[in-house]
Amino acid sequence: MNIKRLVLDVLKPHHPGLIELAESLSNIPEVSGVNISLSEVDQDTETVKIVMEGSDINFTNVKRVLREYDSVVHSIDNVVAGQKIVEDVETPQD
Fold first, then answer.
1. What is 3-81's CATH number?
2. Domain map (residue ranges) of the chain
3. Which of 12, 16, 29, 59 could form a disulfide with 71 if both were Cys (CB 3.0 to 4.6 A apart)?
């Protein structure tokens, strides 16, 4: 599918932390960069936004790493696929 960017809304436990999760996701061979932002904290869990870029991201590998961290994808918020990354542009409807 040639996925270049994934933006995921993920629910994870507090431990292990964001640094460990980011390191594991960045170790996926086709991933060149990972950005994790904390958006909500509950008593037992955290909701995070994960942005990943790479050459041909394999979503199965991403889900495997997230499962290892007892994390669940709530939603896939953005996908960029193809030969290059196409950025969003504002239109009058926005």
1. 3.30.70.1340
2. 3-81
3. 12
What are the tens digits of pLDDT across the range 4-52?
A: 999 999 999 999 999 999 999 999 999 999 999 999 999 999 999 999 9
pLDDT at residue 93, rounded to an integer = 85
Which residue is it, tokens 């239109």?
91
Omega before 29 within 30 of 0, i.e. cis: no
Taking the chain, what is the end-to-end CA distance rounded to the nearest angstrom? 29
d(CA 29, CA 17): 21
Tokens of 2: 């040639």
Helix, strand, coil shares, percent, the chain, to 5 = 20, 45, 35
User: Is the whole model's pTM more than 0.90, yes or no?
Assistant: yes
SS3 78: strand
Residue type at 51 in one-letter notation: V
- Residue 21 amino acid letter: L
